[in-house]
Structures are given as C-alpha cells and as structure tokens.
TrEMBL record:
Keywords: Metal-binding, NAD, Oxidoreductase, Zinc. SUPFAM superfamilies: GroES-like, NAD(P)-binding Rossmann-fold domains. This is alcohol dehydrogenase. It comes from Adineta ricciae. Its cofactor is Zn(2+). Belongs to the zinc-containing alcohol dehydrogenase family. GO terms for molecular function: alcohol dehydrogenase (NAD+) activity; zinc ion binding. Gene3D superfamilies: Medium-chain alcohol dehydrogenases, catalytic domain (3.90.180.10), NAD(P)-binding Rossmann-like Domain (3.40.50.720). NCBIfam families: PRK09422.1 (NF006940). Residues 11-337 form the Enoyl reductase (ER) domain. Its EC number is 1.1.1.1.
C-alpha cells in the first residue's frame, strides 16, 4: 500500500510502498477514504516533544475508512463495510483509575494513532475495535474526518469550560481547531468572541461565517484588555493557538470566576499572576482530546446542527507541501487527504 512515512525528524516524509497491516485479535483493518491533517502530525514528524515517536512512523489520526477485515476477537458491534474513524486515542488499558472513571484520555498506558502506532497517512490502517467509533449515517467523510480530532477536542474543551447557554466564551486562534470550536460553541448556546492574528481578514471572515459575534484582530498584547472593555470579560477562554503569550492574554480576558482552558501545546511556560488568580477565583485547566463517549456526542451534535469542517482536499503525495503551508499559516480551515483521488 502507499503511505507517507516519517523516516527522520524534520525531514520530508517519504511516499513509499509498505505492507498492508495485519489485524491483531482486537483490531480491524480499514481502507482509508479520508484523513485530516492535524498540527500534531507536524509535531510528530518534527520530533518536537520530549516523548518522540519511534521511527519509521506513519502519521495521521483523523482517518475515516471502511472496515475490510476484523480480528478474531472483535465483537458484533462492528462488521465489514462499517465506516469508522481512527482518532488520536487508539487504545487504553481499560483497567486503571482513569479508564474506570470515564477519563480514559488520561490513561498512562494509552496508545495514540500516528504517534505510538501507525496512523492513517496510508491507504490502509489498523484500529482497535474497542475504540472504533462509527461515522453517523449520512455524514460526509471528508468534511467529518477532522471531527475525529479537531471536533472532539474542541467539543470536550467547551464542556470543560462550563460555559452555560447565553454566556461568553472566547476562542483564541481560528484555524483548523478554532473554526470548528466556534460552530460547536454556537450549537451549545454560547456567545462567541474570537481572537485572530492582527489584520487577518481571512480569519475575521471565517470567524463570522462560523457564528462569532465579536472578533478581535488587533495587537496580540491587547486582547485581554479588549475583551474586558468590550464584553466585561468572557466566562471562559479556550486557547487553540500554540503561542505562550496568547495563553497569558487569555488569562487576562476572563471575568471573575472564569476558566482558562488550555488546548494548544506550545513549548514553554505560562506566567500566571497568582494574586489575580486567587482573588478572581480564576481556574486554569488542561483539556486533551475526548473519550469515546465525547466523540459519539460530538458526531451526533455535528449531524443535527450541520457542523462540517471547511476543508481542502489534497493527495497524499502533497503531504510535505501541506506541512510547509501549515508552518507558514497558509491554510484556512483544514486539509484532508483524499484516498479516492486518482
């Protein structure tokens, strides 16, 4: 099968022929239809984080495909022909305190698609049947592929924010994650303000198209002050852009009793004014992807509220060019690899 393979960090991926994977007892094999390209794939290919993937590695964790083979122990909840997704959370131990209390994303023994196991930048991929979530009938696989990462990530972050209908949430950064976050927030009854790069007219337009009421595109060091003056501060801020200064400004943007929800993963440390944190009752909390239940909810909401990602279809051969575009912020919305393209 054709695959895009990381053979060395910070080097172009190689497009090469590799063996079609064989399923273990609890696996299914899918023939990929689509796979979204996430910033985490770029981090994986560059070896940006302390825990690096073993090489060679096939990235990709926003895959959607058709089941073509099942392992010997797979239950009757899946069958050949089912359309399922391959999300970041590939499998967990199922037995630790986190797995047993509905917090499986915190399992220390988890495996991750495209990082600790091969992912979906390939014509075929494996998925643990216990963590496979079907694509609801009638949903477009290309526009839905990013929901298996970007969608569930922001949906879970919005749940973590504890913002109630009619209250304000800010989405800091309106790219592949942030643009989807706006649509979910609106569907959940929240009022939305976004923060985009200075004078980024494309992001301003995308924010409004997705349903944001207010958009800040001014100096990056002023967004906290602007939120306080414009709407009295937000009830929560969800940060989807990997810039430390954006986290610090988000802290300044929330009203008393607010929450700062960290989603993006910049290297570095955030400065928190402890007195403001204590006296203002401000909470800072991390949110990482979502559980299987979160993913099911996220897909159902998307189906009933017509939430689709703004996507550009590309071929797997374009992956290195796509990564260059990501590095230079030349992508509006999300890129999806199309495995049906000739």
């Amino acid at each position: 099968m054709k695959a895009a393979v990381v053979t060395a960090f910070k080097k172009p991926l190689e497009i090469k022929q590799v063996e079609i994977p064989k399923p273990g007892p609890n696996d299914v094999v899918i023939k990929n239809i689509a796979c979204g390209v996430c910033h985490t794939d770029l981090h994986a290919a560059h070896g940006d984080w302390d825990v690096k993937p073993e090489l060679p590695r096939i990235p990709g964790h926003e895959g959607i495909g058709e089941i073509v083979e099942l392992g010997s122990m797979v239950g009757n909840h899946l069958k050949k022909g089912d359309i399922i997704g391959v999300p970041w959370l590939h499998a967990t131990c199922l037995h630790c305190e986190y797995c047993l209390t509905g917090r499986e994303t915190l399992c220390k023994q988890q495996t991750n698609s495209g990082y600790s196991v091969d992912g979906c930048f390939a014509e075929y991929a494996l998925m643990d049947a216990n963590f496979a979530v079907k694509l609801p009938e009638g949903m477009d696989p290309y526009k839905s592929a990013p929901l298996y990462c970007a969608g569930v990530t922001v949906y879970k972050a919005l749940k973590v924010s504890q913002v109630r209908p009619g209250e304000w949430v800010s989405i800091v950064g309106v790219g592949g994650l942030g643009s989807v976050a706006v649509k979910y927030a609106v569907a959940m009854g929240m009022r939305v303000a976004t923060v985009v790069a200075p004078n980024d007219k494309t992001a301003v337009s995308l924010s409004k198209e997705m349903g944001a009421e207010e958009v800040f595109d001014g100096p990056p060091d002023q967004h906290g002050k602007w939120m306080q003056e414009k709407i009295g501060g937000v009830h929560a801020a969800v940060i989807t852009v990997p810039i430390v200064a954006a986290f610090e400004q988000a802290f300044q943007s929330v009203r008393r009793g607010g929450r700062v929800v960290a989603v993006a993963l910049p290297n570095g440390k955030m400065a928190v004014p402890i007195v403001d944190c204590v006296l203002g009752g401000i909470e800072l909390v991390g949110s990482i992807v979502g559980t299987r239940k979160d993913l099911q909810e996220c897909l159902e909401i998307a189906k009933h509220h017509n939430i689709e990602c703004k996507v550009q279809k590309r071929k797997i051969e374009d992956i290195n060019e796509i990564f260059e575009d990501m590095l230079h912020y030349r992508i509006s919305g999300r890129v999806v690899l199309d495995f049906t393209a000739k």
